Amino acid sequence: MPPETEALLTSLGVRERRIEVMGVPLDPLTMDETLDVIDRAIAGRVPLKHVVVNVAKLISMRQNPRLASDVTGSDIINADGMGIVWGARILGLPLPERVAGVDLMERLLALCARRGYRPYILGARPEVLERAVANIRQRHPSIRFAGWRHGYFDPAEEPDVIDEIRESHADCLFVAISSPMKERITEQYRDRLGVPFIMGVGGSVDVLAGVTRRAPVLVQRCGMEWAFRLAQEPHRMWRRYLTTNSAFLGLLLREWARRRIQPNGMDMTP
């Protein structure tokens, strides 16, 4: 972590609040607190890399050491899914709320429009990205983009794509590419990109383009957004949710049991 990043996070008390949930470091920040840290980083040109963790990513990290390293190397790690928030609370760990990546991206785009920050979006299919940019401009007429580029490029083109972003002098970068590629790109090139704030946003661009529907707010708050998505794409998503949700539940139960037993092996259950 660059020294100026460490200094910023320490001055704001972020570092001392970090917790670990089932082996994954998380920052127990609210949405507003997260936005404040990012705003200060962009304004001060302090490099800051952000990532969110949901149930699927937490399980994937246990199976993919490279992904785990790329995620834990991030400067701010928010809990994206309600499953993570509830799991942490069951274990007695403080997570105030969910900070969903798509919600954070939308709040940051509004911040860019107000502050004059210039975002760059990398990822999604060309036609989806164009629709998303048009929708963002309609919602925020004053926003000025540093640029955008679709995510369907050959691996050999990757260095040129990174140089293109660097030369755009963007204030923030949203990487709308699937895991684990987006985590690898943001970690591997964070210094070369020269962008103050970098964030992986996955399928958020599809939401902004209107291609993917989000669950109603009440469904989101109940932690059932995964079920809403499953209903939209049952043939593609059922196996993923069955395996990851089952693995997460088993992991949570083991961690809960471990915390109920003292190191000397005596069960302290009342």
Walkthrough of the structure:
This protein is 55% helix and 12% strand. It is built from 15 helices and eight strands. The chain has a six-stranded parallel sheet, sandwiched between helices. Strands 1-2 form a two-stranded antiparallel ribbon. Helix 14 runs antiparallel to helix 15 (234-259). The longest helix has 26 residues, at 234-259.
Oligomeric state of this protein: single chain
Helix percentage range: 40-55%
The percent range for strand residues is: 5-15%
Question: Strand order within the widest sheet?
Answer: 4-3-8-7-5-6
Shape: globular
Keywords:
270 residues; alpha/beta; 6-stranded parallel beta sheet; two-stranded antiparallel ribbon
